[in-house]
Specification:
about 240 residues, four-stranded mixed sheet, 10 helices, about 55% helix, about 5% strand, alpha+beta
Amino acid sequence: MGLELYLDLLSQPCRAVYIFARRNRIPFELRPVDLLKGQHLSDAFAKVNPLKMVPALKDEDFTLTESVAILLYLARKYKVPDHWYPQDPQACARVDEYLAWQHTNLRRNCLRALWHKVMIPNFLGESVPPETLAATLAELNVSLQLLEDTFLKNQAFLAGPHISLADLMALTELMHPVGAGCQVFEGRPKLAAWRQHVEAAVGEDLFQEAHEVILKAKDTPPADPTTKQKLMPRVLTMIR
C-alpha cells in the first residue's frame, strides 16, 4: 500500500505533517479522519491508532503516532533538505528545543483559544464564561511573547537563517487562534514578518490550501446531540 497519512486539517499537527509531506514531494495516500464527526473514536480507527488521535502514519506494516515523531520519521526516511532538521548538533538542538516546548505552551494555548472562543459556543452550543475566555487569551499572549523573545529573537526563522520543523509546527499552531478571529500578529511586526517568511518558504498556495478548513472554523455548523455527547468529554480533557 505504501505510505498512508491519517489526517484532519482542522488539527494543527495534521496541517504541519500535510504541508511537510507535500512540500518535500513525499508520496502518500491521504486517509481523511473527520474529528468533528468523531471518526477518530471509532473502532476502525483504533486499529490504526489505539490512542484515537491524529495524525497517524502507516508505512506498509509500520504504524506511528505523534506529530513530532511522524515529522522526524519522514525527514529521515526521505532525506529531505538538511534545513528542516539539521545534522549539526547545535542547530538540531534548537529545533528540538522548540518542539519540546510547544506541546504544553504555544500549542496548548492556541488550541484552547480556538475552542473557548469559537468551537465550544458555536459547535457544541455551550457557553464559555467571559473570565475563562479572557484568561485563555491572556495565556496565549504570554506564549506569543515567549515565542517572539526566546525563540525568534531577531532571526528570520525560529532556529536560524532557514526554515525548519520548528517554524512549520509554530505557524500551523498560530493559525488556530487566527481561525477563531484572534489578531495574533497585530502589533507584532517581527512575528508578522516571520509568518511571511514561513509562508513563502513552504509556498503560499500550499499554505492556504492546508488552512482552508481552520480559516472557516467560525462557520462550523452545530453538532448533533449524539456527536456532542461523544465528543464533549474528549474536548474537555483536551483543553483543560
